[in-house]
Amino acid sequence: MTMAGPELAHQLTPLAVLLPLGVAFLLLALSHWLPPRTADVTALVIALGLMVLCGWLGAESWHGPIVHWFGGWTPPVSGKPDVMLGIAFSVDPASAAVAAFCALLFAGSFVFAWGYFDKVHAHFHVLMLLFLAAMIGFCLTRDVFNLFVWFELMGIAAFALTAYPLGKSSLEGAFNFTIANALGSFLMLAGVGLLYARTGTLDFVTMGRIIASLPPDPVIAGGFCLVATALLTKAAIVPFNMWLSDAHAVAPSPVSVIFSGVMVSLGLFGLLKLVAIVFAGDPRVMMLVHIGLFWLGVATAVVGGLMAWAQRHLKRLLAFSTISHLGVMLIAVASVSAIGTEGFLVYLVGHGLVKGALFMIAGVLLARFNSVDEIELYGEGRSIWPAGIAMGVAGLLLGGLPWGLLHDATDSVHAGSHGLAGVVAIVAGTALTGAAVLRATARIFLRWSGVPGVERVAPTEREREKGDRPLWLMLLPCAVMLAIALLPADLAESFVHRAATGLVARAIPHAGGGTQAAAITFALTILIPAASLLRHRPTRRLARVAAHVETAPFYGLHVLHSGRVTDYVVWMMVGLAVLAGWLKFG
Amino acid sequence: MTGSWRLALLAPALVVLAIAAAQVILAMPAFGHPLSQYGATVDALVPMLRNVSNMVAAVNFDIRSIDTLGEESMLICAVTATVVLLRGHRGEGMTECAGRLPGRVWLERSDATVLMCRLAATTLFLYGVNVVLHGTVTPGGGFQGGAIAASSFVLIYLGEGYSTWRDVLHSETLAAVEGFGGFVFAMAAMVPLAFGYAAAQNVLPLGTWKDLYSGGLMVIVNAAVGVAVIGSFGVLLMEFMEETRAPKPGDEDDEDQEEGA
Fold first, then answer.
1. Does B52 touch chain A (CB under 8 A)?
2. Which residues are within 8 A (CB) of A114 and not within 5 positions of it... i.e. 6 or more apart?
3. Whether this model's pTM surpasses 0.90
4. Could you list the residue range(s) of the whole structural domain that residue A64 is in?
5. Which parts of A200-263 fold into alpha helices (H)?
6. Within-domain flag for A13
7. CA–CA gap between residue A328 and residue A313 (Å, rounded)
8. Within a domain: A189
9. Domain segments of chain B: what residues?
């Protein structure tokens, strides 16, 4: 049977989700009898296959979205224009590219984790494949309730994977993660209920059409607040961010690669899609997005950057750096413009690659030295210097090295944002996180130090990960990911432009100023750690006062990140109230 | 943060949220009116299109079956997660008897208990299967029927004692049943694609309205859900029961567990 390209793409679209689900179930059923390594091989092949499939679907959707109605319930089967009976997947270049990127990171993580998880049958691979299926479903669906289903499945898989090492800290981290995100899920379900109650449909496009035709409506606004809170919680935006640093710091490294690399940014991708397709016709909601979410992004970029600088536990440092970069991405999303979306999409990929690579290096350190504490590991890393080179490159990329995907993406984000606050937040977040990674690299691999400043008082903990894997096997996926991150974004310029305009058509005048900001950012990335590494013990009185003034605000931030889930829930409610209050009184 | 700080933050937030919620509630469609267009359309069209009398089943297993596959995956994922979390320290080994509180009197089961449990377990299992099979005709279906059938396993434990329960039910078999059910559901969605239909398209003969066989593919999907739920609940019961058993010295699985903190 031969089919033309578009027809074949239509037939293959559901496989992007059904295949990993089916294989996960089969692995579960047969896990007791499978020869060793079968699960490793199968999971890797499936992840690579899905990457190719989603990439190809993205190319096929160039001229318009591929829409597949499950069960053949293609409209107008109901005979009414506003009643969509079934559920559709809609493939556009952006969604397919993000889905393909998820699969790429999973493939990298499977290679990195080769042989790491062989003790409990295939449970790790079953959970990971369900996790991947949920992410791809989340990218491709165009039904609000179906979006919730994949969101929830993602959450459940992620809770289990966080707790996988079963140590005290990983159970605590998983507990905080579960409570915060399950609360987010409840809010999302309630929000979906409100939206359905008003519009009578769950289909993105139909719902968007109905919302655009309604007068401003508190039910729609309330629905948006609740759904947005859930997605912002997943994306760890201030003040919904507290769970992330607990969870990402304690999850097994191959899992943290996925968490920080793409799971959290998917929250923002989902938000962007909903805003662009469903809520674009509601001016009050759009005001909230343009201004309110912009400021949340600014706060997140700065707070995340400061907290990353103040850590000594490498995985915690990376977790806070992720929060900071999510703030930058939210600034891009809040512009809801073509250029901002271009920046967001490239940033998502560039950040995911670099952050994934960094978590792999943290995993290498854990496997070799049973620690990721930059002060404890002073000079230890010399025996594995290739990892040091990779970490240095990754740190430079994170901190705005004028080369590669992240740099080009940051330029676009600058062009899409407006006002000094956006520029300052992006510069501060980028420079502080890059500086923190470079400081840790210098300490661990170069034996450079200087008297530790704020990071000395940060929480730290010894951990272990199974260490019998060869170094090259762990560094291979890391090197490949960094190599991709070093490519210039121009290579895919037309694709990215197409992908962004497929989601958001709105063009805005470029704010510009990106190049100057980029130069300042990179200079700061180099200067901040240099100053820190050359620091002497403050002996003179003035120096002691200065050191005290420097550390005081960090104590405050440390106190806020208390590790207590009750505090986190309070902050989530405050955040929700801020969003709701903005819509009501703003 | 101390409790009073928490309250000081939470109270104003809740005030704002209460005002916002009140505004939303007052703007909601009035109670029971107007009837959802979606429900009315399904009621009007689907008995004719699919020959089924249970509209909830039609929505779950046909019209929005991809949602149900996602929910089925959630169940299986959650059960797998439970196994990972609970079994970690304990391994899969078996002992002669379940853990007991030291000093508690151990009484032999009476014949009456054994007899009642055997009767009730069989009846309950058959009743569960019956609810699964009539999923497209009457209220119930795979999820509910599967849960009922799986609860008969507890009665085996009650009536026959720990060692027989472990002899009868094996965790690998239960996991296989669970995975197989999920796999059949996924295949039911994939196979129509190969023949040029949409995923999960209901292309089997639809059967007769109000008959045991009605709804075509829904019958298979519904049964697959039932099988998966029986397996999942079985695994779950097994792991919970095993929690009462103290680990043997050789049971700790490896170095990862030793440290803990």
1. no
2. A40, A469, A473
3. yes
4. 19-585
5. 204-213, 218-234, 242-250, 253-258
6. no
7. 23
8. yes
9. 34-92+109-247
